[in-house]
Amino acid sequence: MSRRVVITGMGAVTPLGTGVEKFWAGIKANKLGISFIDMYDTERTGVKIAGIVRDFNEEDYYDVKGCFDKKEAKRMDTFTKYAVVAAHEAVTDAGTDFSDLDPYRVGVLVGSGIGGVDLTLVEHNKYLEKGPGRMSAFYIPMMISNMAAGTISMKTGFRGANFDVTTACASATHSIGEAFRKIKDGYLDACLAGGTESTRVEFTFGGFANMKALTKSDDLTRASIPFDKERSGFVLGEGSAVLVLEEYEHAKARGARIYAEIAGYGATCDGYHMTSPMPSGEAAAKGMQLAMEEAGLSPADIDYINAHGTSTGLNDKYETAAIKLALGEKDARRVKISSTKSMIGHLLGAAGAVEAVVCAKSVQEGFIHATVGYKVPDEECDLDYCGNGNIEQEVNAVLSNSLGFGGHNATLCFRRVTD
Fold first, then answer.
1. How much is the pTM?
2. Which residues are marked as active site?
3. Which residues in the chain are classed under CATH 3.40.47.10?
4. Which of 100, 155, 253, 336 sits 20 to 30 Å CA-CA off 117?
5. Residue 207: which residues within 8 A CB-CB, separation 6 or more?
6. Parallel, antiparallel, or unpaired for β 304-306 and 397-404?
7. Distance of CA 133 to CAs 120, 136, 408, Å?
8. DSSP H helical segments within 131-279, as ranges?
9. Burial 101-125 (b: 16+ CB within 10 A, else e)
10. What is the DSSP letter of 185?
């Protein structure tokens, strides 16, 4: 059995705003969602800038059915709250609660790269200062990264396959890809899929900074600059996005508004290094090729690539090499490429889901956003990164790449729906 899978609902909590409408408006306006860190003194880490969610007020959701009340909120880590709100928006946007389906045929696959790391620090400090008896009884169920997916199931009643993919920066893309496969192969009829992350404490920033992964720039306009020769590391971000994936015939029968079709998914592993991508780009290229093959498309069919594009020296160089291998020199130079991280930073386990929202909207509206802040060409990154601004053109097929620490590669292929 092989069935078509479409996107019929989307929700997002991002550094550019809460809600897909606000997020997408910021993307189209090339707004920067990154800002100066004000949660703690940045002197010790030297990292001054982050992609912080500024407009999320949990009190706004206390009386919203399907979200959480004040008591429940105290027992949820921030990454779970973000996911619950994004999922609620996605289901509302889809215009159905799928009550016509067997609840065991509707799943929830929401990934997180880290889970409740901020809470872990709080509880660890309690442990050191007051002993284990003073730790919260809710620490473990609040911290574990699968709790976002589990809580969404409790709120929606969806009882199908439910799990958390944790593959670092590729977590959300793998989650969406696995949900796509479960619907395509007949195991589910619909699924909420995406990712979520919140890492706001000095502890987390210190860890990434000591890896030399984060930029220490104090210029908001030159901090997250993927593919630019002056890039100096990524900007750490937070947020969530959840998509409603639905079997095409079911969506069509109920008259659903369809953003785009997910037509292919490729997953590979570099098997090379803990943090560095494979220099040749071979494994990432294979992921792109597998996604195109499953979609029945050739490199000439691809209009746009939403790149992983982290603004680190190695990722951008090696992803460029991978795109050339996957598409061939001619099509690699033709295709439009941009990085959403240039505006919101790197949302880790949520990155691929937020970028999936961008891809779906790009297909729907015929719009490709710029790589904001790109100024200085790099001879090792020599493709078209949309450095001259936004592009309005018909977008029929898109690839979205996510490359996670550990060598985890995932690519999704989106396309315009045609009967």
1. 0.97
2. 169
3. 5-253, 265-415
4. 155
5. none
6. parallel
7. 15, 8, 39
8. 139-143, 147-156, 171-184, 202-210, 248-253
9. beeebbbbbbbbbbbbbbbbebbee
10. T
Please report, as a single letter, which amino acid is at residue 76: M
Tokens of 237: 């971000």
Average pLDDT by consecutive 10-residue portion of the chain (419 residues)? 93 98 98 97 97 97 96 96 98 98 98 94 95 96 97 98 97 98 98 96 95 97 98 98 98 98 98 94 98 98 98 98 98 98 98 98 98 98 98 98 97 94
Give the E-state strand segments of 174-301 in sequence order: 190-197, 239-247, 260-269
CB 33 within 8 A of CB 290: no
Candidates 270, 268, 201; CA nearest to 238 is 201
Please give the single-letter amino acid code of residue 106: V
User: Two tokens at 93?
Assistant: 């946007």
> 5-253, which class in CATH?
alpha beta
Beta bridge partners of 195: 111, 241
Looking up tokens 């792109």 gives 288
**Distinct helix (H) and strand (E) counts, the chain:** 13, 15
CATH number of the 265-415 domain: 3.40.47.10
Cα pseudo-dihedral 41, 37, 47, 315, rounded to 10: 160
Q: What is the pLDDT of residue 1?
A: 64
Is there a contact between 277 and 314 (Cβ–Cβ < 8 Å)? Answer: yes
What count of residues does the chain have? 419
Rounded CA-CA distance 298/83 in Å is 35
CA distance 55 to 101: 35
| pLDDT value of residue 418 | 84
Closest listed residue to residue 387, CA positions, set 231, 278, 213 = 231
The pair of structure tokens assigned to 210 is 């000591």
- Read off the pLDDT of residues 176-230 as tens digits, 9 standing for 90 and up: 999 999 999 999 999 999 999 998 999 999 999 999 999 999 999 999 999 999 9
Is the four-CA dihedral 349, 352, 353, 358 of positive or negative sign? positive
Do the strands 106-111 and 162-163 form a parallel or antiparallel pair, or are they unpaired?
parallel
